[in-house]
């Protein structure tokens, strides 16, 4: 190997020792080797044809962000599928046909919310299917005479065998008042009368306060709910989705409203 001085080559072994010259040779040697290994770095920043920084490989933090987004998307997809499956199961468990009237229990409880519920409960009472009846969640403005219009027996059956609760404000309140009534009467079994779409949530709340009492479901078929073709009826869809949300909230005991008038008065 030699270097040129003018037009005459001078061998390196005959060149006097030059520390600065040797340092430049080593620097150029390693620089050329690095450029051969990584051609992206070889291009000068001032070269218009060289790749820009935007074309460099993504930073590790960007890969973590992409992975986090993919995991979040997968979790959301799984959660959506779970909710849809649970909703379909909820709808499938609703009874579409009237139950058999051949049921017997110590008492019968009618949860207000529809006139058909009270009428069906009165029929069970007058037929001797239960000893006594509780109507829970009755509005303060509703008189006993108005309730007697739901049965052919009239006011006589109300005077002898019917108790009226005006304290409950919602399903949780219905369950609390029903528990007090069952314990006061020392009943071991009761028939629960409410709409078919409302029955799962009613039984859920009642089982929490009456774990040792036999609960017999007597669902009333709602006229506003078409279970056979609910997906084609907007009213049925709204009713089922609304009740499913309430049922899911009751499952996790997510309560916002006060259950009874007494609890509301204490909160104020």
Short descriptors:
single chain, 268 residues, alpha/beta, 5-stranded parallel sheet, two-stranded antiparallel sheet, 10 helices, 49% helix, elongated
In short:
The protein has 268 residues and is α/β, with parallel strands linked by helices. The protein has helices spanning 19-37, 39-42, 60-93, 115-126, 144-148, 155-161, 171-185, 199-209, 234-251, 261-267; strands spanning 2-5, 8-11, 107-111, 132-136, 162-165, 189-195, 214-220. The strands form two sheets. It has a five-stranded parallel sheet with strand order 5-4-3-6-7, sandwiched between helices. A two-stranded antiparallel sheet has the order 1-2.
β-sheet strand percentage: 5-15%
Number of helices: 10
Main beta sheet strand tally, sense and closure: 5 strands, parallel
Strand order of the largest sheet: 5-4-3-6-7
Structural class given helices, strands, pairing?
alpha/beta
How many beta-strand elements? 7
Low-confidence regions: 40-54
Secondary-structure element pattern, one letter each: EEHHHEHEHHEHEHEHH
Shape: elongated
Query: Terminal Cα separation, in Å?
Result: 99 Å
Rg, rounded, reads 40 Å
User: For the residues shown, what is the average pLDDT?
Assistant: 83
- Fraction in helix: 40-55%
């Amino acid at each position: 190997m030699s270097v040129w001085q003018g037009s005459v080559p001078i061998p390196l072994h005959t060149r006097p020792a030059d520390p600065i010259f040797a340092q430049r040779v080593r620097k150029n040697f390693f620089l050329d080797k690095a450029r051969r290994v990584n051609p992206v770095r070889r291009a000068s920043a001032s070269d218009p044809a060289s790749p820009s920084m935007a074309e460099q490989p993504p930073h590790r933090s960007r890969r973590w962000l992409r992975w986090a987004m993919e995991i979040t998307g997968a979790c959301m997809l799984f959660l959506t599928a779970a909710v849809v499956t649970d909703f379909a199961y909820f709808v499938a468990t609703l009874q579409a046909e009237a139950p058999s009237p051949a049921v017997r229990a110590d008492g019968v409880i009618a949860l207000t919310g529809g006139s058909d519920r009270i009428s069906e409960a009165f029929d069970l009472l007058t037929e001797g299917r239960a000893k006594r009846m509780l109507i829970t969640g009755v509005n303060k403005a509703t008189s006993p005479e108005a309730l007697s219009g739901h049965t052919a027996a009239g006011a006589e059956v109300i005077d002898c065998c019917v108790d009226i609760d005006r304290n409950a404000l919602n399903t949780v309140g219905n369950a609390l008042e029903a528990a007090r009534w069952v314990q006061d009467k020392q009943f071991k079994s009761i028939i629960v009368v409410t709409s078919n779409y409302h029955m799962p949530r009613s039984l859920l709340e009642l089982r929490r306060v009456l774990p040792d009492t036999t609960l017999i479901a007597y669902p009333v078929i709602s006229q506003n709910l078409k279970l056979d073709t609910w997906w084609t009826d907007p009213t049925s869809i709204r009713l089922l989705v609304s009740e499913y949300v309430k049922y899911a909230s009751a499952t996790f005991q997510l309560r916002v409203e006060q259950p009874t008038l007494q609890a509301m008065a204490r909160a104020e």
